[in-house]
Design a protein that fits this description.
The structure is a homodimer.
Chain A lengths: L5 E2 L9 E3 L23 H4 L5 H8 L4 E3 L2 H7 L7 E3 L1 H7 L4 E6 L10 H13 L4 E6 L3 H13 L2 E7 H6 L1 H9 L3 E5 L5 H9 L7 H14 L3 E3 L6 H21 L5 E5 L4 H15 L6 E7 L4 H4 L1 E6 L8 E6 L21 H8 L4 E5 L1 H15 L5 H20 L4 E6 L7 H8 L10 H9 L7
Helix pairs in contact in A: 2-11, 3-5, 4-15, 5-6, 6-8, 9-10, 11-12, 15-16
């Protein structure tokens, strides 16, 4: 049907395996290092934090990893997610380009995050774990893990960055509706939190601080494991259900994407859409342009250093090689709380280093311009994070118009903005400002990177 | 597949016609009366408010009315909506019943309301109308019409009940994101609003007042038409896309609903799911139990009078025969703003009077109990309105358990609660109270019903 808008698959077509990009990388990922010895860590080093099944996925080189049936059984509550052609946006832009988006906002928590929250909760449950601790920024991840915890009877504690906790009471209410506990970070519940509060009782918090708190809880209590919503290899792996579905859905469209776009904070929604397509390319398929879009106020891929760094402010995590702004870097205020992380997933960093993807940074106002235009054409109000991908897709479509090229553009609509309407109110009130990060502060944060022999 | 959870249809299966229950009613609907002459109104009387195509639908006795392709083209942005089996809820209740729900929250505005907002905007546009005025309570309807207005280039003005305007800034932000204007009601922009404010400058407003304001704007300005999100026959008609899809989806399940449930405020989401099933019955098919669920604090079907009444507080609308609490009745505070209307759709009232449906009223706390249990099992956080349907579905499933009957239950999940999380916060804080309406006030409101010769 030539005017088809929405490409849906039934639940039997949810992928049966996750796709592991590590199997097809032209050069292997640098190893993860122990923060003390600076030697490569083994699975046993990670056991205090993660169940063994996830550790093995973290280091796996297998191309395909089976998705256990109980996890597919949960996925089918909302997956496969639709691939939608943005015909009204194309028309408004008067572009010869075709614009498609994969809509991950249909999940119960409203974003792509349950794709990994569900397997993480399930593997923990299989190993007998009954309590999980984690951090969240804007709250997409915290609500996703709370949802997964509710399904499998796991108690979840979420350390939410203080400024988001105060600004987004509805996201916190969602976390509590799923039965989890939500604590503003820095908190008095951990040494890491108390140390920060001692220096600054009004600290707005950061993802790096909240990670330290959540890791500390798990490290100190053998009953508790830790769960991370992005950055790690097994998180990227779980997210690939999305890109695999998109490949099947493109077979229905008769089109083939020339440009694939995702926003990047820790890298997980980007990886989820992009890795399966990149895998096709690395196994001899067609080369496509792949663009990672990040906030100009927290530009790890475009302005960070590719170096070993800690994942958290308190330096409790292993060292990973990634594009980083330095673990002490605190970005200025902006509304895409999910993109406020100092580092980038090692796998995403690695493929950027290998020249397999492009990266681009935007300030927030122009992203909201694009998001509002998208909402008025396509109905869906994007999350502030996803507005970065929309901005890039619109710019690429306008380039196609200038160049007279009927390219096919695909982007990931990683989540809806229902819990972020305060940001839209600020936008309409003219109160969104585009703050630059402090160059001096970045230089200082980068100077503080741990020294690791090359 | 025996363990299937989600029953999806592709967009080619969106119904091509709306179903008009009027064609199958055993007894015709009582006529709509002119408020002055108290004689039946003709199409010309309604022309100041509505485009002729909608007026003709309002009085049509045709069983099927074609859905114009441009409307189906918009429906495919989110329709067909999924039919989902609530397997985890069944398990938590340990019931032999099968519980299904039709999930209308996947629409861009998050509820069933765009099913009629889109055709209403389109028919107005076809007649050259460029401005629409309407009212909204909780904001589901206002945001749906704002969305539809954005698609067809129509300026939309929404009078939102003051108490909801203040309590739900995110819903208002959604209306504004779609480019519409949102005004708290009572306002100084209309005679009706000014009259209320003169008596009570702090009036919290009501749907009846907001309707008066919106109708007045349209009645006074030939450039503006009025749009109503519930109650009227053409609104019920448009909503039947949902029930028709549900019938097709049940063919995929191998089950057949014994009990069908919807919450009722003005009646539109209930009618949309129920009327197509009821039509099958009236044409000789199987009899099913059909239950309308309303709030105990605003119980038009269970405690109202079946009588001619005005649709608004200012008495600007025609008189319709319906279950009513009286147009001056103001319900006590509760969180399902979409169910705070003094009257019930004439078609829903009529079939209740004919004994074709049951009605039941619940206070809000028990509805939230059920809604939270549902969220923890099925992930979706229901709107406070939809929690009434969840409560009834759970109660029916528990009855099945007591009676050992493996019945099939279907309910309409009319919308998600992402914009209503303040109500969940109040629930968890123990601040939700079950207020009864004032019996004296109800008696007075009913005593004030207009006198109409039988």
């Amino acid at each position: 049907m030539s005017d088809q808008t929405k490409f849906v698959l039934d639940e039997t077509q949810i992928p049966k395996t996750w796709y592991n990009l590590a199997a097809d990388l032209p050069k292997p990922l640098p190893p993860v290092l122990h923060p003390g010895t600076k030697q490569p860590v083994g699975p046993a080093d990670l056991e205090p934090l993660f169940p063994m099944a996830l550790i093995l996925q973290e280091v796996s080189a297998e191309r395909y990893i089976d998705i256990p049936e109980p996890i597919r059984d949960v996925y089918r509550m909302w997956r496969p997610t639709p691939l939608i052609r943005a015909r009204r946006l194309e028309k408004a832009l008067d572009t010869p380009a075709k614009i498609y988006f994969k809509y991950e906002g249909v999940s119960p928590a409203g974003s792509h995050k349950p794709n990994t929250a569900v397997p993480q909760a399930w593997y923990n449950k299989e190993q007998g774990v009954t309590r999980l601790s984690t951090e969240t920024g804007a709250g997409q991840w915290g609500s996703a893990l709370a949802f997964a915890g509710a399904l499998f009877g796991i108690d979840v504690t979420v350390f939410q960055v203080r400024v988001s906790y105060d600004q987004k009471p509805y996201r916190r209410a969602l976390i509590e509706t799923y039965g989890a506990r939500c604590i503003p970070s820095p908190s008095k519940e951990t040494d890491s939190g108390r140390a920060i509060l001692a220096r600054d009782p009004n600290s707005p918090g950061s993802l790096g601080i909240a990670i330290s708190e959540a890791v500390e809880v798990a490290a100190k209590d053998p009953q508790v494991k830790y769960s991370l919503g992005s950055v790690l290899n097994h998180v990227m792996l779980h997210q690939t259900v999305n890109g695999q579905e998109a490949i099947k859905q493109f077979e229905m469209t008769g089109d083939d994407p020339d440009v694939i776009i995702g926003c990047t904070g820790g890298g997980s929604n980007f990886a989820g859409l992009v890795f399966p397509f990149l895998g096709l390319q690395l196994r001899g398929g067609r080369k496509r342009r792949i663009i990672a879009v990040e906030p100009a106020a927290c530009p790890s891929l475009t302005r960070g250093k590719y170096a070993y760094d800690f994942g958290d402010t308190g330096h409790l995590t292993p060292l990973v090689k990634m594009h980083t702004l330095g673990s002490t870097f605190i970005p200025p205020g902006f509304h895409a709380g999910g993109l406020r992380y100092h580092g980038m997933a090692p796998m995403v960093s690695h493929i950027h280093e290998l020249g397999l993807i492009e990266a681009r940074a935007y300030h927030q106002k122009t992203c909201f311009d694009a998001g509002v235009q998208f909402a008025r054409c396509e109905g869906i109000v994007p999350a502030p994070e996803a507005n970065h991908a929309v901005r890039c897709a619109v710019d690429e479509a306008l380039r196609c118009k200038r160049e007279g090229r009927p390219e096919t553009i695909l982007f990931n609509m990683s989540g809806h903005g229902h819990f972020d309407m305060a940001a839209y109110i600020a936008y309409f009130d003219g109160k969104l400002v585009d703050q630059d990060y402090d160059e001096g502060e970045l230089a200082m944060a980068l100077a503080g990177l741990p020294s690791v022999a090359a």
